[in-house]
Amino acid sequence: MKTKEIDTKEYHSIGNELKLFGFGIGEDIHNINKAVEGTVEEEELYYEFPKHELRVYLNPYKKSHFISTTNPEFEILDETALNMTKEDVMAEFSEYDLHEFVFGFGEDNPEDTSYIYFSVEKEEDDDKQKVVLKFNQDRVESVFLGTEDVPFHQIIEPGVEEDDLFTDDELMVLSKYLTLDVDLGLNNKKVLSKEFMQYAQVGLLEGMPFPLGFSKDDLINRFELPNTVTAGSGMVKQYYYYTAYNAYLGFTQEDEESKELLTEIVIPVDLPIEEMEERYDFKDKKMGEYSISIVTEEERVVEVILTLADPFDKS
Fold first, then answer.
1. How far apart are CA 62 and CA 261, in angstroms?
2. Distance between CA atoms of 277 and 292, rounded to whole angstroms?
3. Contact yes or no for 22/6 (Cβ under 8 A)
4. Contacts of 107 (CB under 8 A, 6+ apart)
5. 286 contacts: CB under 8 Å, gap ≥ 6
6. Tens digit of pLDDT for each residue in 34-72?
7. What confidence tens digit (pLDDT) does each residue in 129-181 have?
């Protein structure tokens, strides 16, 4: 007799898989076979339960780590996502960081196939679950639900070779962030405030509890993950966007062995050039190891950038 991996009384999920299918994600396939009624078809990458329109994907230890389903009774956060349009998804799940990834190759992924994905923290504990909604012709065709440790790319493309597997950060760079909401008004007030230069002279942005030069590892361990990740430019490897700070944080790495350090804080704004120049009388202002620059478009300032001049200076 195989002992159940999941205690149903203690199991919490944002989906209704336990009620609908009779098992929780993380359960051993042996117990899943006993819990789910009907025939099962064992494929190379998953176990399929046709009666329930369900596929169960296993980790190397034969435990389920994500599922996909076209069952119309399956719910995410008490919502039936199947057949939702993208507009429906944006409206129902707007409080989460929604990203859209589009690619087209092979019969299973034609050019009009896209995926919207996001993470949800369960109310009962600090664990997160990952949701992927597969679209075809602008409607959700199937719903995926997985554990936090499974990369989104693996859920989107089961069977992808490890060398070709994108991390979640890498996938975000290739995706469109659908729920970006920058408070330009708040940023305008920050950069025009009397305190802005006082903070900038020590490598800080008001409201941000860490300075330029802070390591990315420490940031993630001590604070939180970013809302999205975008591609870097120049020396900057990646930009982390944090809604809480209304800013993009750029990280630079000296070499493969060194830590990634915060070297740029990019503050989106929308201000007339004249107003910035009257207030600060600068376009590029150096302050010791820090500098401030602006990016303009059509006579307006669209970004204010705080930069750490030489992050790897060991003198």
1. 39
2. 13
3. no
4. none
5. 309
6. 999 899 999 989 999 999 999 999 999 999 999 999 999
7. 999 999 988 899 999 999 999 999 999 999 899 999 999 999 999 999 999 98
Any residues with CB less than 8 A from the CB of 68 and at least 6 apart, and which?
46, 54, 55, 57, 134, 142, 143, 144
Domain residue ranges in the chain: 17-177, 184-308
Within 10 angstroms of residue 46's Cβ, the number of other Cβ atoms is 19
Contact 218, 162 (CB under 8 A): no
Q: Which amino acid is at 277?
A: E
42: enclosing H helix or E strand: strand 41-42
Residue 13 and residue 122: Cα distance in Å, rounded? 7
Q: Which residue, chain included where needed, has tokens 């870097």?
A: 232
Q: Tell me how far apart the alpha carbons of residues 9 and 60 are, in angstroms, rounded to a whole number.
A: 26
Taking the C-alpha atoms of residue 27 and residue 25, their distance in angstroms, rounded to an integer, is 6
**CA separation for the pair 284, 52 (Å, rounded):** 62
pTM: 0.85
Q: Are 28 and 143 in contact (CB under 8 A)?
A: no
CB 268 within 8 A of CB 187: yes
> What is the C-alpha separation between 74 and 78, in angstroms, rounded?
9
Question: How far apart, in Å, are the Cα atoms of 245 and each of 88, 94, 196, 218?
Answer: 28, 19, 14, 17
Contact 14, 131 (CB under 8 A): yes
Q: Radius of gyration over alpha carbons of the chain, in Å? A: 23
φ/ψ of residue 8, rounded to 5: -60, -30
Alpha helix (H) residue ranges in 104-263: 152-156, 168-173, 184-192, 196-200, 216-222
